[in-house]
Design brief:
There is one protein chain. The chain has 336 residues and is of the alpha/beta class. The protein is built from 12 helices and 12 strands. The protein folds into 2 domains: 2-153 and 315-335, NAD(P)-binding Rossmann-like Domain (Rossmann fold); 157-311, 2-Layer Sandwich (Dihydrodipicolinate Reductase, domain 2), CATH 3.30.360.10. Helix content is 42%, strand content 20%. The strands form 2 sheets. The protein has a 6-stranded mixed beta sheet, sandwiched between helices. Strands 8-10-9-7-11-12 form a 6-stranded mixed beta sheet. Strand 4, helix 4 (105-114) and strand 5 (118-121) form a beta-alpha-beta unit. Helix 1 packs across helix 12 (315-335) and helix 4 packs parallel to helix 5 (125-140). The longest helix is centred in the N-terminal third of the chain and has 21 residues, at 10-30. 45% of the residues are buried. The structure holds NADP nicotinamide-adenine-dinucleotide phosphate. NADP nicotinamide-adenine-dinucleotide phosphate binds at residues 6-12, 40-43, 66, 79, 94-97, 104, 122-124, 149, 153, 313-315, 318. NADP nicotinamide-adenine-dinucleotide phosphate binds next to helix 1 and helix 12.
Length: 336
């Protein structure tokens, strides 16, 4: 399968490492040979229609800070030029999530769909701001649009709710969808102040470059939008979410929760309304996970409530979700 990869940061590099380490097994088990024919980061690109070398891409990025130096040419194509001119089957979008205008991911995705390419995105920005219209565009252009890694990293939350509970009617769900805020709140429960816990999370590299995405609940709200559209069939975008982050949570709030045998957690919920806010959760509730873990509880009409717990982020975990999407696309193409 010919692939164009947008963005070559943590996830993009993990993905080509995964392709490299699984090459034989992917071919033997699924008949899939991922061929990355174009890749670009913010500074330039590399293109080879016969397939770029995975190890060399990672080495070049490490040495020069960009994939542009992969070949000894002076000029490299822009991302849009690649999308318009290089023949490929699938676009994998891994540029940074942006909740103001969803760029550059939005243009990458729409350009690829209009060209008839299937799209896999781990970038949440375009989905958070325009989920319904992107689904329409995919349908109109008869391409597949997959985004397993946008919620739960490698934990197959979207697939579970959509496929394992198929035939059921999910009536509500609630979850801890942002590992960074969960880490901060967990540390506050051990006695750290908000500022101390935030500093520790920053030191460990858990906090987004724009800390507001984590602390003000935007990342969790974006995931809630994706879940609400995909699982509940709603047509909503980010402004429809009633969103409060964790900046105002105090150590007193945490102590008060403890007295009730509860912990304060940033919960994204879809019940009567769509909401992200810090609330008390019983310590006995399976949803009450600690550290950077994510958890989500789906309540359905006949099967009761089921909770899925897993690591919500990480380069390799997210890359594995991209691979899952890619194999789904391959299977679907083979069927039609
Ligand atoms: N990391 C995770 O665990 C995780 C989990 C789930 C979802 N995600 C999502 O996956 C995406 C990638 O995450 P990441 O951790 O890999 O981020 P990252 O390390 O910051 O990588 C982002 C990549 O996007 C590139 N980029 C930025 N602006 C660009 C532009 N205008 N044109 C082309 N490339 C551009 C960057 O280029 P440079 O290299 O030149 O800076 C970089 O290669 C994000 O949307 C994130 O929200 C991440």
């Amino acid at each position: 399968m010919r692939i164009i990869l947008c963005g070559f940061g943590v996830v993009g590099q993990s993905l080509v490492k995964l392709f490299d380490s699984r090459a034989e097994d992917l071919y033997a088990k699924y008949g899939v040979k991922p061929r990355v024919v174009g890749v670009f980061d913010s500074k330039g690109s590399a293109v080879d229609s016969s397939g770029l070398e995975f190890n060399k891409l990672v080495e070049v990025k490490k040495k020069f800070g960009t994939v542009k130096n992969y070949a000894n040419t002076k000029n490299s194509m822009t991302g849009i030029e690649i999308l318009k001119n290089v023949e490929a089957d699938v676009l994998i979008e891994t540029t940074a999530s942006n909740y103001k205008d969803a760029e550059p991911g939005m243009t990458h995705i729409t350009t690829a769909m209009k060209k008839g390419m299937h799209v896999i995105s781990v970038n949440k920005g375009p989905l958070a701001l325009a989920f319904p219209s992107l689904m329409e565009l995919a349908t109109y252009n008869q391409v597949m649009f997959k985004f397993s890694g946008t919620v739960g990293g490698g934990t197959p939350i979207l697939d579970y709710a959509k496929n394992s509970l198929s035939g059921e009617r999910i009536t509500s769900f609630a979850g801890i969808l942002n590992g960074t805020t969960n880490y901060i709140l967990t540390n506050m429960a051990t006695g750290l102040s908000f500022d101390e816990a935030l500093k520790d999370a920053k030191d460990k590299g858990y906090v987004e470059a724009d800390e507001s995405l984590d602390l003000d609940g935007l990342d969790a709200a974006a995931k809630l939008v994706i879940l609400a559209n995909w699982i509940m069939g709603m047509k909503v975008t980010l402004p429809d979410i009633n969103c409060t982050g964790i900046r105002k949570v105090t150590t007193d709030d945490i102590k008060k929760a403890e007295k009730n045998n509860c912990s304060v957690k940033l919960i994204a919920s879809c019940n009567k309304d769509l909401k992200v806010s810090p609330i008390e959760v019983s310590n006995e509730d399976p949803l009450c996970v600690n550290g950077t873990l994510n958890a989500i509880a789906f309540t359905s009409e006949h099967s009761g409530t089921q909770t899925i717990i897993g690591r919500g982020a990480g380069g390799m975990e997210t890359a594995s979700s991209i691979l899952r999407d890619l194999l789904d696309i391959r299977k679907e193409i083979a069927r039609t």
